[in-house]
Amino acid sequence: MAKRIDVSGLSAYYGTFRAIDDISMTIEPRSVTAFIGPSGCGKSTFLRTLNRMHEVVPGARVEGKVLLDDENLYGSGVDPVSVRRTVGMVFQRPNPFPTMSIYDNVAAGLRLNGIRKKGELDSIVEKSLKGANLWNEVKDRLNKPGSGLSGGQQQRLCIARAIAVEPQVLLMDEPCSALDPISTLAIEDLIGELKTQFTIVIVTHNMQQAARVSDRTAFFNLAAVGQPGKLIEIDETERIFSNPTVQATEDYISGRFG
Amino acid sequence: MSDVVNDAQPLSGAPAPSRLATARLPRWAPLGIAVGAIVVGFGVGAAAGWKSHIQWGLLALFLFVAGSYAITARVEGRRQAKDRVATSLIWASFILAVIPLYSLVQTTISKGSKALDGTFLTHSMNNVLTIQPGGGVYHAIIGTLEQVAIATAIAAPIGILTAIYLVEYGVGRLARWVTFFVDVMTGVPSIVAGLFILSVWFEATGQAPHEGFAGSLALTILMLPVVVRSTEEMLKLVPNELREASLALGVPKWRTITKVVIPTAVGGITTGVMLAVARIAGESAPIALLVFGSDVINNNPFQGPQSSLPYYIYQQYTNGNDPSYNRAWSAALVLIAFVMILNALARAIARWKAPKTGR
């Protein structure tokens, strides 16, 4: 199921501003890859280019190639809608649909894509909520609004919603930054389980989190404010945190930055 | 370090006078000052023999604001006194705003209830001499309902779709022009809208219109910009995160709009449409030009002259005799009730459809 991502020569722009410059990397299937780096270095922008969410912002465009198992996401004739069905995304702030119940939130992606059979929906909703470790907490109130859950539960609901459409890759943009340590732990455990089925990419500001959950870590940096962000290095997480090749990485990780 | 430990233990003896708490006026003080100001203001007014009761009220108002400031400044301090003055001014403005509303509703109810009965609501003015009492408003209610319904059926979809275009798709010159012309349309006087439809109708058919549908078209022109503007504001309030969450699930943009954006904003959109309906329900100028007015029941908005509530009020009032005055006031009451029922419905729908919270 999970797919490899090969990025080569990727630059992303907001209007005339180049946010990230010439990034190339390989993201392995069935593993967790963490992106770390200071604010404004283009981690989130890069993440959003991987499922063509970048171009949703008016004036934004992308140059370069993103190969998903040899298929270029930016090839001519590629439908961004089918790309997003294959590459799911969880956002920084939990964003359940406020007009929908817990059940409808999880079923939203399926229903909006045309699956309507009650039995099929029921089983996928249950499977996804179990997959997101939320089933036991919400199984008795599936018809209550999703916005009534706690922040951590809402974020797990969003993860359930994302995995319900069975993507190949799951992108997570600082999924724990709005959550307390207990909810963070729940989501990190969940990431560990999900990586057996999905390719996971996670952006985080929390270096301990990157060290805990990821197999490989990429460090991004920018020369100065207003300059594009660049990929400094990507390697096994253990190496990045113990013996990085580049001095800037070590400075950033050890807190000696700037 | 030992100081910190001591602080945590309960203090013995009397607490030192606090610097954080000051003397406070009792909770009834603003009301008391208000009552005092009104008594003194009206007393002075009556004693001095001022004819205008507005002068009494203004004096009471001045005494209320000045009294609040003086008393609060003495007891609580200057900052609290300023706060109290601001609060007093807001209350005074509120009361000033409510007085005309109350007066309007009270006058309409007291004068409008004279002729208002079952007969009035179920009969037309057919074969009723204007100087006779009796007759009714049924034909005008039918006219207003049909004309407003047709106008809404045309303006609401076009307006909502325009707003969706502007918020979800509109970039560049076309969107700017659409916004500009919507703003221009907001300022079109109703008589001009009526004249526009009149001239278009004349060009198209060679004769002047005598039917409800022509009035509906003019009302559509008046309603459209209100619907576009209010819907636009409501759609802008929908957080972008929801659109992105839906797009990231691989949902096409049009389904994101129909299934996520619009349901989230539907309460506000409904309220906006209802307010626009309320605005056009009171228009008489286009009806006088295009629908011609009528004393008999005409259920067909596409043939023959009709009446409408505002036009009926105007017609009865210009008759210039007591039975007609009473009918005009009653029709005004019916019109106000109609608009209020619509508003209540809009609020109910908005509450029912609002994004749900709670467990």
Automatic annotation (TrEMBL), chain A:
Gene3D superfamilies: P-loop containing nucleotide triphosphate hydrolases (3.40.50.300). Residues 5-247 form the ABC transporter domain. InterPro entries: AAA+_ATPase, ABC_transporter-like_ATP-bd, ABC_transporter-like_CS, P-loop_NTPase, PstB-like. It comes from the Bacteria. GO terms for molecular function: ATP binding. SMART domains: AAA (SM00382). SUPFAM superfamilies: P-loop containing nucleoside triphosphate hydrolases (SSF52540). The keyword Ribosomal protein does not apply. Coiled coil: none annotated. This is Phosphate ABC transporter ATP-binding protein. It comes from Actinacidiphila acididurans. The lineage of its organism: Bacteria, Bacillati, Actinomycetota, Actinomycetes, Kitasatosporales.
UniProtKB/TrEMBL annotation, chain B:
The chain crosses the membrane at residues 28-48, 54-73, 85-105, 148-167, 179-202, 208-228, 260-281, 328-350. It is found in: Cell membrane. Pfam families: BPD_transp_1. PROSITE patterns: ABC_TM1. Keywords: Cell membrane, Membrane, Phosphate transport, Transmembrane, Transmembrane helix, Transport. InterPro entries: MetI-like, MetI-like_sf, Phosphate_PstA, Phosphate_transprt_permease. Gene3D superfamilies: MetI-like. Residues 141-346 form the ABC transmembrane type-1 domain. The keyword Transport applies. The keyword Membrane applies. It comes from the Bacteria. It is a multi-pass membrane protein. Belongs to the binding-protein-dependent transport system permease family. CysTW subfamily. NCBIfam families: 3a0107s02c (TIGR00974). PANTHER family: PHOSPHATE TRANSPORT SYSTEM PERMEASE PROTEIN PSTA (PTHR42922:SF1). Part of the binding-protein-dependent transport system for phosphate; probably responsible for the translocation of the substrate across the membrane. This is Phosphate transport system permease protein PstA. It comes from Actinacidiphila acididurans. The gene is pstA.
